[in-house]
Amino acid sequence: MRNTRILASAAPIAVGAALLCGAPALAQDIDANSEECVDCISLANSINSDVILVSADRADEVRLREHTGSATIITREQIEQRQVRDIADVLRDVPGVAVASVAGQTQIRLRGAEANHVLVLVDGIEVSDPFGGEFDIGTLQAEPGSSVEVLRGPQSALYGSDAIGGVVAYRSGDFDGFGARIEGGSNNTVNGAARYGYVGESVSASLSATVVSTDGEPNARGGTRDIGRDSYTISGRASAEITDGLQLRGAARFIRTEGEFNNSDFNSANPTFGLIIDSPETSFENEAIYALIGARFTTPDGSWSHDLSAQIADITRDTLGPFGPSNSSEGSRLKASYVTAYDFGGSDHSITFAADWERERFRNTTPGGFAFTGRRQIENTGLVGEYRYDGDRFDVSAAIRHDINDRFADETTFNIGAGYRITDSTRLRANAGSGIKNPGFFELFGFVDGTFIGNEDLSPEKSMSWEMGVDQEFADGDLVISATYFDAQLEDEIFTTFPPPTFTATPANRTSDSDQSGVEVAVSAQIGPQFSLNAAYAYLDAQEDGVEEVRRPESIASAALTWTAPGDAASVTLVVRHNGATPDVAFTDPSFVPVRVTLDDYTLVNFNARVELADGLELFARAENLFDERYEQVFSFVSPGRTVVAGFGATF
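The structure assignment produced for this chain is given below.
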C-alpha cells in the first residue's frame, strides 16, 4: 500500500515548483505564524494580544484583542509540540468543533452546523469540492511552520454561502531555512515532510512536500481487512515587493490521496445487513489542484489598500470496485476578488469594500450510463461592505453582503459585533449574524439514477445566530479563561428523505427549524517557566423539531499539558480528548429508512516526547490512543486502536 519512493523524489520536484508558487502578504503587527513570534502560545490567547487574525476581516488587519466574535488560533508551536500530522486531529482541541472520520472522508462540524456549512481556506484558497459541497479535512497534512485559525459562528457576511457555520483557515506560514522529518511505526506507517524557505526584505518563498502512508487496520466490526492510505502533498508560496506599496503573491498546492475502504452490507438476508463489512478490492483515488495569484497596492501613507486576486480549484474523485471505477466526479471553481480598505489616515475607524465573482462547475463521471454525465455550473457575485471601529476599550464591527445568484434568489446577510474592555484583564463581547448555504450539485441533481434522486426545487438554508462571551486574564496573563454562550436557528434545513412507495433517497427542505445552542469554554495557562496547559470544553444542544441532530455529541472536552526543558532541549506533551455519546443513524431496516442509534462516548489519550540530540537535530516519538480505546465515530465504522511512531527531525 505504501509508495515511500516519493520521499526521495519529492525534493527535486519541489525545487522546480518553487518558482511558480506563493502566498498572501505578511500582516502587520504580530503574526502568530512568523519566525519572530517567540511566545505565540500565550500571545494567541491573551486578550491584550496584537496577534493578527488573518481570516477575520477581508482586509487582513484584525488584531485578536479587537475581534468581536469567537476565534481560536492553533499556533505553529502547538502543532509541533503535539506532533500533529493530520490537521483534523488538532481541530478536536478547539471548543465547538466536532470531528467524525471514516476512510475516505473526514468531516468537521462547528457549533452543530453541517460539515458543508464550514468554509475551509488553505493559504487563502477555498478548497471545498464543488461536487460534494465540502472539504475532506483528512487530506490536509501539517507542514513545518503551519498554523490554523478557527472562526465560529456565521461568517457569510464576509465569505458568502459556504461559511454559514464558520471558517477554518490553514496557513502554511513563512519559513526561513530547511526543515525535514521522517518517522515510522505501527501498521507499517511511514510519514515524511520537508520544507525549504527563504525570507528576505522584499522577497519570501517556500516549498514543501509531505507524505502520510500507512497500511492501516480493520475498520469493520469483526473485520480482518486492513484499510490503508497514502496521501501526498506538494505546495509552495511566494511574495515579492516590486516597488514601494506594490506586492505580488502566489500560492499553489497539489494533493493526491489513495486508500481502501469498506462498504455496507446491502443483502437483507445477512445478519450484518446495514453494517460495514470487509469489501475486498474497493478503493478510492482523489486528486486536487489549487492555485492563487494576487497583487496588493497600498498608498504611501498606508491608509488605503487595494487587493486583486484570482484562484482556481480542480478536484477529481474516483471510487474503484472489483470491476473497475464505480463512482466518479469532477468539480472545479474559478474565483476572482477585489478588496479595498481605507482607515481614514490611521484613525480607529476603517471601511472595507469587497467584490467576489465565483463560478463552480461539476460533472458526474460515474460510468455505466446510470447518471447524467453532462457538465453543469453555478455562478455567484457577492458585494461586501464592512465598517470597524477599534478603540482603546470599545470595539465595534458591522458587515453586510449581498449575493447575486444565477440559480437561486438573491440573498443579503449581515454580521454585527461589539467588544468592551471593562478592565485591562476583563473583556466582554457580543456578536450576531445571519448565514446562507445554497444547495450543492449532489442535492440539486442527484448522483446515480434509482439510488439518489436530486431536487432542483430546493431552497437555500438560512441561519440566524447570536452569542455573548467574556475573556478574563489572571496572573498578568499567565492564565486566560474565555467563556461563550451561543444560540442559532437554521431554517429550510436540507435533509435526506425516503418517500414511499419506492423509498428512494431524495433531499428536501424541512418545514421545522433546527436549533443549536450551547456553551464553549477555553483555558490557557502558563504554569511556571516549563509547563503550559490548553483546555477546551463545549456543551451543545442541537435539535430539529425536538429531535437530537446526528453526529453532534452533547459534550466535547480536551486538554493538552506540555513540559518544556530549559533552552527547549526537550519536551513532553500529554493530550486527553473526550467525546460524549453521539446520536447517529443506521440503515439496518430493509426499507432503508434510517434507524436512530447512539454511539458510546470515548476518551483518547495521546503522549509524545522529543529530545534535541544536537543543534537542529531531534529525536521524537509518540503514542496515539495510548490505552487502545475501541470506539466508533460513525455507526459501525471501527476507529484505529493504539499506534506508536518514532522518528527524526532536522532544521537548519
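Interim note for the steering committee: The radius of gyration is 24 Å. Residues 1-30, 35-43 have pLDDT under 50 and may be disordered.
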